[in-house]
Each structure stands twice: as structure tokens, then as C-alpha cells.
Write a structure and sequence with these properties.
Layout lengths: L2 H9 L3 H57 L3 E4 L5 E4 L1 H13 L2 H13 L1 H17 L1
Antiparallel strand pairs: 1-2
Length: 135
């Protein structure tokens, strides 16, 4: 259904067809607008919650790292992939030193990396250890 068809119906005095086509056209426009509004609403509601949950996870891993140092004890951590790693106080200290030396963007990358998989966690810890030896 196009506006051309509507104009054609109107000019040829096909009023019933004009009404039917107008109704169809308006109904389609309304449906399209509802779909767009629905997507926008979902983005407005869901995306902030997703970012909020990601921020909470980042804060939780920082809390666990600091607790390991504070309690001077090993803490087992379950990562996003379901694997479990042991966070030792010395490792926690290295992570905090690394974390504090980074800008906000790189801090986020570091946190995402250590909480994702056991492999990423171990690689990051190795990197922190190697960095510490150099200084």
C-alpha cells in the first residue's frame, strides 16, 4: 500500500477502496512505530541494567582481591566460564599494583580479562609477576 494508491482511489472516487487502503496504510505505520518504540524502550530499560550488572561484577572482583590481601588468605573464585581459580594474597597485591597503575579504560580491560576464564586469569597473573620482576 502506497500513498499513490490512495490518491488514485480518491481521484477515481473509489471511496470504499480509499478507506480500506487508508486504514491499511495507517495500521502499518502504527505497527512500525510501535515496533520502533518497543526496541527503544527495551534499550532504555535493559542496557542500563546490563551495564549496572557489569559494574557490580567489576566491583565484586576488586572486593575479592582486596579481601585476599586484607585477610592474608587464599580465596577461591569462580570465573564467568565456570572454572575455579585460587587467588593468593601475593597475586592479589600484584593485581592491585597493576590495577592502580592503569587508566580507567585499561582497568576495565584488566578486570574483564581476569574474571573471564582460567587461562586469561593465569596469563594475567604471569604478566603481573613478570612486570614486578622487571621493577
Amino acid at each position: 500500500m502506497t500513498p499513490r494508491t490512495l490518491i488514485f482511489n480518491l481521484l477515481h472516487e473509489e471511496l470504499d477502496q480509499f478507506k480500506s487502503n487508508l486504514y491499511s496504510l495507517l495500521d502499518q505505520k502504527i505497527s512500525d512505530r510501535k515496533a520502533i518504540n518497543m526496541v527503544n524502550e527495551v534499550q532504555n530499560v535493559v542496557l542500563p541494567k546490563v551495564h549496572e550488572q557489569a559494574d557490580k561484577l567489576d566491583n565484586n572482583i576488586i572486593y575479592v582481591i582486596k579481601e585476599s590481601i586484607k585477610q592474608n588468605s587464599n580465596i577461591n573464585v569462580i570465573l564467568e566460564d565456570g572454572s575455579e581459580v585460587t587467588l593468593r594474597p601475593k597475586d592479589s597485591e600484584k593485581l592491585i599494583i597493576m590495577f592502580d597503575s592503569l587508566d580507567e579504560s585499561n582497568q576495565s580491560l584488566l578486570l574483564n580479562r581476569i574474571k573471564r576464564t582460567k587461562t586469561y586469569f593465569e596469563e594475567t597473573m604471569k604478566f603481573c609477576s613478570n612486570l614486578e620482576r622487571r621493577h
